[in-house]
Amino acid sequence: MAHLILTGCTGTAGAAVLARCIETPTVATVSVLSRRPIKQAEGKGKVKVYIHEDFTTYPDSLLSNLKGAVGCIWALGISTTQVKASEYQVITYDYALAAAKAFATLSPSFNFVYVSGESVTRSPGRFTPLFSRVKGQAENSLLALRSDYPSLRIWNARPAFIDETRHPLKEGPSPLAKRLADRAGPVWRAIWPNGVTPTGPLAEVLVRCAEEMASKEDVKASMGGTGLVMEEGETLGVLLSNPGIRRLAGL
Question: Is 0.85 surpassed by the pTM of this model?
Answer without folding.
Answer: yes
